[in-house]
Known about the structure:
4 copies of one chain form a homotetramer. Chain A is mainly beta.
Amino acid sequence: MKGFFYPRTATGEASLIPSPPWYYSGDLLTVEYRTDPARVADLLPAPLSLAPDDPGAVALIWADWQSCSSGREELLDPVRSQYKEAFVVVRCAYRGEVFSRCVYIWVDKDFAVARGIHQGYPKKLGSMWQTRPHPFGQAAPQIGPGGTFGATLAAGDRRLAEAVLTLREPCDGNGFVNAHPMAHHRVLPGIGRGAPDAFAELISSGAAGFEGGPAWRGDADLRLHESPTEELARLTVDEVIGGYYRQVGVVWNGGSTLERLA
Amino acid sequence: MKGFFYPRTATGEASLIPSPPWYYSGDLLTVEYRTDPARVADLLPAPLSLAPDDPGAVALIWADWQSCSSGREELLDPVRSQYKEAFVVVRCAYRGEVFSRCVYIWVDKDFAVARGIHQGYPKKLGSMWQTRPHPFGQAAPQIGPGGTFGATLAAGDRRLAEAVLTLREPCDGNGFVNAHPMAHHRVLPGIGRGAPDAFAELISSGAAGFEGGPAWRGDADLRLHESPTEELARLTVDEVIGGYYRQVGVVWNGGSTLERLA
Amino acid sequence: MKGFFYPRTATGEASLIPSPPWYYSGDLLTVEYRTDPARVADLLPAPLSLAPDDPGAVALIWADWQSCSSGREELLDPVRSQYKEAFVVVRCAYRGEVFSRCVYIWVDKDFAVARGIHQGYPKKLGSMWQTRPHPFGQAAPQIGPGGTFGATLAAGDRRLAEAVLTLREPCDGNGFVNAHPMAHHRVLPGIGRGAPDAFAELISSGAAGFEGGPAWRGDADLRLHESPTEELARLTVDEVIGGYYRQVGVVWNGGSTLERLA
Amino acid sequence: MKGFFYPRTATGEASLIPSPPWYYSGDLLTVEYRTDPARVADLLPAPLSLAPDDPGAVALIWADWQSCSSGREELLDPVRSQYKEAFVVVRCAYRGEVFSRCVYIWVDKDFAVARGIHQGYPKKLGSMWQTRPHPFGQAAPQIGPGGTFGATLAAGDRRLAEAVLTLREPCDGNGFVNAHPMAHHRVLPGIGRGAPDAFAELISSGAAGFEGGPAWRGDADLRLHESPTEELARLTVDEVIGGYYRQVGVVWNGGSTLERLA
């Protein structure tokens, strides 16, 4: 039976996602801020603990992606290639090293959900929008001083977050919170009633390839809204660190198990 | 850390799905037909094999569901409760017993995708529509002789299947293909490049509770269409067995492992 | 050139909507309440004025429809037949008679938008959900004492309204606000810069045929939320009059001009 | 009462669209081809007739837009700003002059539908996708030699058209079919049963402002698919003229009436 992911069949052609490597081109709008470190600790199961420096730092990142597999055929049928996402990253410590960790994430395509199950991103469906730069400014900002970008996130027909970023100056990178290898749990609950997890592991992964355009820094405003099925608003915005915009190209090609947990 | 599914947090409130039991009320439109048994065998990984009797029988089932957890709060925020699906079921043999097996399935909500990952249903996102009965016939059929229902399935902006069912008479049940306990694989690929599966098991599950209204049988027409990312159309409709309509209430509350595979 | 609505072609087959009559089967969940009559007057252009009795009465109505034209072919391709809507109705006076008037409405299909342009309903796109009754109560209420239904409305990725209705007893009808013939404006702005309306008329229409099941009355809770592009929340809920649930079948087949305005 | 479009209120804030001028920044992917001129004539009501030269020329254009009004506030809430569309343009003659005419168009937002009603574009809802260029080529083409772009159109859960364009060289413009002022009908059927149109006029409009980047020409493949509610596939692709890609900025600010028809 062939197929990287389900459904597995004699040909493998129906698999929801093909084997890595996976390729991405897109734009990232990042807002970094500080919240109560206790709220970050609420999201770090053992064996993870708070990062030693600036433990309450959070990054809320919007990404507008085009993606494909090695065959690139998705690019010619772009309903299978384009997707948007918003995700929340914190940092944590594991065996003396600092990792990044995605604690919440929303996407708008099923292939992106499936990649997340493989990579340990806790993906839900949402509706994400971010202003696009364009060479002609009739209805678009440029990536440069004064360029203003909005970004919104909704799920379950409720708006969860909205940001406005006005670019000011070039800078060295688009933030420090999402700059480490990721430490993610991959978990499958047991099939029996009340059973413990059938499988659980802590894995690490990062980009197998990366190119980035100039990063821009600016002034950011971020508002989070309550929802009965989300906990994002508990990560209150106590102090904005900064906002960033950057165009990137990324390759992802697997990770490694840090620790088997179940 | 709490939460049946991801994301797991200190409170568990953001979990994409709560713990079973899960409750369902809905309408099922089923078309059963025969295809080449070799095409069914293409979908049965070891240790499963073809069912001994009528091995090429297939059921394509549309379902219009309302669902909830024990707390029932989803019912008051029905964007979290209602979903539609279409799924393809075949039968198979395992250790001398006959099981049903869902080989393809499309749903339209993320909580339904997540339940599928737990239960071993290979869920993708799709767009499903089925005619609804209603007490007033201005724009609706009734569940009774001559009642005509349409059903369609699309994914990736392509129509994959369409059926028309005209009810003729009451019958004993809504088909025999989806009438056994399910035998499903639950698989998580290894995180390393080219790694074997990190976890794989064959599980069985069925309804923990079931109520069904009168089943109706009728004449069905079913057309399947090609898509570069689907293999549904390979299960060619060689002979229609019958079409069925039934309203049901179901409880699902876990299953059991038949065999650990990896 | 043929076609009731655009696009008009030699065959008329591509017309977004066919000629009336139009047929509807569906469920209505209504919450009636009182707001400041001055806010209702804000929505009544000349020659309309406030209704003499209970001028601040408002109905917010959710409807879950299946609809078709005389040929009924939409019922077999239900993506063309089913739609949901939420709409706000007030009453007004015109030449000594009382009319109902839809002041805001959201739907989720283009054919419903087009019908609204013809009928003078100011339709926008939205996301509406309402709990469905079902014969099996695993995840559904019944239409009867204690049956509890939720309903929500969102547009632009913001939740605009949410209601909960618990049925208590049968009653004579599902409210009085939406019980008169409709008085609607049909307006097309002039194509020139700053031009006055190219066309404007006040029309009246109502059902050409109606069947209704038993109406149920109950206790309703209604919350309205702000949005920068909506004015619904200005119609503050000062006092809930009642909540209603009813299944209906309707035929619509044109109206008449009350007054040509431009 | 204020508001350019419905609903009109005391403040005008809820109007589905604000007054022109409207501003657009976006990317256009165009495929021009020849069909049987008789099929074009089927789409030209009196007083329009076939263009004298190359009367069977057709342009199928995909556009990925960001748009706003003079206040530009939509750009910070991009769910109100971004939309996609695909539209079919032919040429026609009126009183000795050649005009372009949009005969079919699909968009994915309600504000775009409303603008179309004002401008005489026969807009339906659809699902459109077109490959995006990006500075980093991991999963994106560049606008340059060899850059390959796909584009698809679906409506009613059926795929209607798909194109693949491979750029070869710069050229003077992105086609000749959509290069004239538009000649559109604006029509409102009468509200009475079987009544003639209450309003009909032939209008002309074009861009009030335009900027365009370099145009690129290339090899295009275009396939059209049947649908029971569309007539696009009757405009058979007899001969591809060429494919084009261009980034543009546009301002629209009203038009003028050519002839009042009803």
